[in-house]
Amino acid sequence: MNIEFKQLSEVEKIDIIKLMNNQLVRKQMPLFKGDFNEQICDQFITAKKALWIEHGYGPWAFIVDDQFAGWGGLQAEDGDADLALVLHPNYWGIGKALYKEIINRAFGEMRLKSITVLFPLSRTRINGLLRLGFKKEKELMIQNEQFIKYRLTNS
Question: In what order do the strands lie in the sheet with 145-153?
Answer without folding.
Answer: 3-6, 59-64, 67-77, 80-87, 114-120, 145-153, 135-142
